[in-house]
Amino acid sequence: MVKIAIFASGSGTNFDNIMRRIAKGELAHIEVTALYTDQPTAPCVTLGHEHHITVHTFTPKSYHSKEAYELDVLAKLQDEQVEWIVLAGYMRLIGQTLLDAYEGKILNIHPSLLPKYKGIDAVGQALNNGENETGSTVHYVDAGMDTGQIIAQRTCPIYQDDTKATLENRIKALEYELYPEVIQEIIQ
């Protein structure tokens, strides 16, 4: 079994999808030690409890520095013997403390065809710029914002009558297939 930690900041839908895949036996070699969140009141916390796993909540603003925050997170990761970190809607840049400890062992999924539309509101950016297609990218995490080496991408069309909500739903459907496939392939 490979021990992973999942980091999320919001709704937790990708986290939920991964947990459901594990429960179905599709990712049988993966053990999620805990959900880590920087948003103690986010919906992902409820999902963590529903999946009966430990949820570590942190309030980054209560730390005197990013390094102090990440050292606290790192201590928990090491206590749980975590081998990989999987970001699933985690809205903070990973700092040097975690990057050094987990070099080449942090994955992220992003709702665009990177290198286009990094950062926040990638779906809105693609829609507002009149793109004909967009998609989702799984990549390794580095010190930049969505700049790590691309592992896999999936595309989907953007229709003229798309709203941000309809396009987000189409991208999420891609992510729910793509992320587990990459996790299965990469995390050994």
Element-level helix/strand string: EHEHEHEHEHEEH
Helical residue percent band: 25-40%
- Using DSSP, what is the number of strands? 7
- The low-confidence runs, each spanning 5 or more residues with pLDDT under 50, are none
Query: Main beta sheet, described?
Result: 7 strands, mixed
- Would you identify the CATH architecture of one domain? 3-Layer(aba) Sandwich
**How would you classify the helix and strand content by structural class?**
alpha/beta
CA-based shape = globular
- Here the CATH topology of one domain equals Rossmann fold
CATH class of one domain: Alpha Beta
What Rg is obtained from the alpha carbons, in whole angstroms? 16 Å
Task: Give a brief rundown of this model.
With 188 residues, this protein is α/β, with parallel strands linked by helices.
